């Protein structure tokens, strides 16, 4: 028949992202990598015909939802990021840098799930079973309902699923599992696509929650083809500084909940624990007021987080002064310095500027601009800002302060932690320079950065606490 004829054609595939094309090109159009496109052989395209269905189509109102209800994972911060817990039949991809604590987190999730009398299968392809057992002994994760298997073959993994019949599967990691009937080495584009597709099919058909661990590349993106992120339901990213015990879990994709939630964890030798109130890790408690510091209030997902910004300004011995940042966006710091020179008469063109955060916090939100400006002014004038002050606001190139999102939540968090005054941008409909009380917190509205520094006493040799009326 004419509609059943097969047409043969050559195919070329990118080894970095899996993008396919009908002709060879020197640069991948998807990931922009040079020299990664290679021929994968002749592909035969066959016109599809109608076939049998797995289940009849029904009205959407008659589809039962009880089987896909959220289940508590036993780790509250993970449930917060997922939107309520683990969903049966969901495929979750967890990515992160080597050594950040992905395996420790998932072993804790597996142990907590097993304690609820739900069976868990933990498949490790990177470590031996005895190595995982040692970690479980150290973190208290040994349980009779937690099954452990060290496998690198897809067929063996599926056999374990048939035998154990778990409610939760953890595969650490998807790049180490290979399918013998598929060409390529484990971790390659073809292998990763087939392994992920097979595990997702098992998760959907058997209603098993499946968690896959994924590697990341040098630039922080998930290794393997981009189709890996498309076939799963949830993509999580686990991040943290090697010099800090603090870890953060972010949702990059979530079909069952929000993608703007963040979970906080503390990683130690005894395992991983949740951090309900992480603000104390990023705010230094000084015995006396010191110049060059100011507290910012950023939003990590839906959670307000207070972090201290520190600045040091010294005379530069070289023609081109240094601008060094840690935990801050260097381009935004450079912009704030330029605005301070132009609109607040701070002379920083011949000064070395160092700006950083406390405790390894990473502040890249524009709402931290005003705190950076206050810390720079405080360091320049060698006078501390008034005690109990937080600064919130985005700075424009004209020196104006712009409103930021979720300002009531930020002010409520500052008031809860005992701060006495907040400097924020003026409302468009309200008068500039007014003072108001929000939950016991004195809020000062200012229109621009020059007015904010003036009210804090950084233009004249006066007592800043007396100028603002606090302290």
From TrEMBL:
InterPro entries: AAA+_ATPase, DNA_repair_RadA, P-loop_NTPase, RecA_ATP-bd, Ribosomal_Su5_D2-typ_SF, Ribsml_uS5_D2-typ_fold_subgr, Rubredoxin_2. Residues 352-471 are annotated as: Lon-protease-like. A motif (RadA KNRFG motif) lies at residues 253-257. PROSITE patterns: RECA_2. ATP binds at residues 96-103. GO terms for cellular component: cytosol. One of its GO terms (molecular function) is ATP binding. Keywords: ATP-binding, DNA damage, DNA repair, DNA-binding, Hydrolase, Metal-binding, Nucleotide-binding, Stress response, Zinc, Zinc-finger. Pfam families: AAA_25, ChlI, Zn_ribbon_LapB. Gene3D superfamilies: 3.30.230.10, P-loop containing nucleotide triphosphate hydrolases (3.40.50.300). Residues 67-216 form the RecA family profile domain. One of its GO terms (biological process) is recombinational repair. PANTHER family: DNA REPAIR PROTEIN RADA (PTHR32472), DNA REPAIR PROTEIN RADA-LIKE PROTEIN (PTHR32472:SF10). Belongs to the RecA family. RadA subfamily. The middle region has homology to RecA with ATPase motifs including the RadA KNRFG motif, while the C-terminus is homologous to Lon protease. Plays a role in repairing double-strand DNA breaks, probably involving stabilizing or processing branched DNA or blocked replication forks. DNA-dependent ATPase involved in processing of recombination intermediates, plays a role in repairing DNA breaks. Stimulates the branch migration of RecA-mediated strand transfer reactions, allowing the 3' invading strand to extend heteroduplex DNA faster. Binds ssDNA in the presence of ADP but not other nucleotides, has ATPase activity that is stimulated by ssDNA and various branched DNA structures, but inhibited by SSB. Does not have RecA's homology-searching function. This is DNA repair protein RadA. It comes from Nocardioides guangzhouensis. The gene is radA.
